Fold this protein.
Amino acid sequence: MTKSGHKRLAFYQLLAGEEWPAELREEFGRHFSRFGVPSFAVDSEADQRFRASVERRRIPALRDTILACTGEHVYEHPFHYLSVRSDRSYDKGDFLDLSAACPGDSRVRCRIGARQTGKLVMDAGKSKDLDLIEESSSPRPKVFIVSRRLRDSLRQADFRGFRLVPTLRRGATYSDQQRELSYVDDRLVEEAPFFQLLVTARAPGAPWVGEVVRTFYQCSRCGTLNGAFFESGPRFKPEDLDQDADIQTLSRYRTSNQGQVEIMGEVVVISARFLRFLKDNKVRGLARYSSDPPAKHGIVDLLD
């Protein structure tokens, strides 16, 4: 434990498409998740023995650490990763402009540079009945959808870094102007089945992740990484984040061997007070940050 209510977990990831040796799984069985990821209290006796076994066997694996907190202690950390459930997959309209986006190559359609210009078209009968959901078809820009209940609560709070945009109702008739993302009128607000939480704040810096150890795919046109093993999870300097924003996105990491790299998706960071607001208001749709290693909340690691 780093201090009361706080602990740091060490976890290990295999770099190759292999499985952990049977003797290790037998010896450290209770430390393995059902998905085969071993985790330990940092520098515990079990962690030290497992690490020595990995090094002795020359198993290609990465060791990283993550912060875990319980109860009210979680709010002592100023920033957190936002993790929410995904909505059901169905066509929500042509809300993205791909004209300036990277087309990618024969392996992946990159879409870096896409921007949202239109409103989402929602079907209340198909979407999940939750307060906060993510549209999984758009990893970048990230698209979050909120219920009218949550929208009304957010309007009464003093949060920074986003704006709320009414979505369109499937089957209704709208003018071209009403379909534009920037346009809002009384009818749109009154009839909206949901609202989009449009993140407007961008993190000014890029956190440190050490070496790019293994890349699964890198766009041959723009160099964007889509899946990679890094030496460590993101480590932030205070200046890497907008200290006044309650929600912000980032899509760049600093590395030791490739300089600054762009990642395919977006990472969403929220303030502790925004997390408390979501929890206190019993917002439906929040997801567990990680099952491997087990961590309910994703705490942003800030460097001293």
User: Anything to note?
Assistant: Residues 127 and 283 are 16 Å apart (CA to CA). The mean pLDDT is 93. The two ends are 18 Å apart (CA to CA).
